[in-house]
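Objective 1.3, modelling of assemblies. Example input:
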Amino acid sequence: MSTETLVQPHAETENTHMWSGGKSPFNVSYGKLMMWIFLLSDAFTFASLLVAYGTLRFSFSGNVETPWPLPDMVFNHFPFFHHMHMPLFFVSLMTFILIFSSVTMVLAVEAGHRNSKKEVEKYMLLTIIGGLAFLGCQAWEWTQFIGDGGRLFSNNFGLTEQGIQKGLATKLFGHIEWVEEDRMSGAIPFASFFFVVTGFHGFHVFSGVVLNVIIYLNVIKGTYERRGHYEMVEKVGLYWHFVDLVWVFVFTFFYLI
Amino acid sequence: MANAVHHEENHDLKKQIWKTFWILFGITLLDIALYFLMPQSLGRNLIFVVLGILKAVYIVGIFMHLKFEKLNLILIIVLPMAFILFFVWLMFYEGGKWSAM
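Predicted structure (tokens):
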């Protein structure tokens, strides 16, 4: 209401140029534009973390006193398969969960365009379940990491000569169990970055789930049906896709490389 | 009539969403296959980064709908990120030099 009264006088004065005010030069609503700007700034934060991670990781190349741990010798657990060497399997599962919840989110947005309340409800609920599943996986991953000896400022994921030989001899799905002599102190930033980056991302997922729940409750209450559009679903959707996007890079830099 | 056209559009949109999902799924499977089949090297890491950027393009372009927004909006999002990519390359290069010190 109030915005309309503000916009009207400008619209009347012959204002055809895109930047002369009275209308969005970006052709999106204020809220959506601000969400984009926020996500851009958030992307800078994550980029700075990943840049710091990469720089320090490269600086440890060739370091034998405190070697950079090998990701596939650290993240090789899978629930219910104890001591089985399964690198990348669990994080791949997490990636698929997050991509899938992104799809259900975009389907909710699409249903919102058609003002189909029932479908928006269904897809929002699926998105929330996906988010919770991801958080559960992350909790399990952290538990393994801490149980194995990963701490914020120390870790024992560095491999001695004996450990490296053992790692090389282990086949995919083979049995692997470390003994004291296999391991030594690894590069300290390895575990620090693991906790900070996956923790910061996990916090974003958590916030996303909370936002999704709020929007979901509003959808059920019919707030957006009365409003006539489901743009709030779109805004929270942008945030949710961003969380998925960040995970793509965490997956690439922490687990693949 | 207008309703039918509207319905057709929605159908296309849904098809596009699922197509994007299968593309993202496929790229991730390719990532995993390369991880197990190719020995670790700088080339493999570069492939992973390129595939990561490709996934980002699909997520931001289709899921976040940026591809269909005005050029103004596309530029304010994409240009700063392009500079970030340069910064990433720069700092990785720098980190490599630190290891030799």
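Confidence is low (pLDDT under 50) at residues 1-5, 8-12 of chain A.
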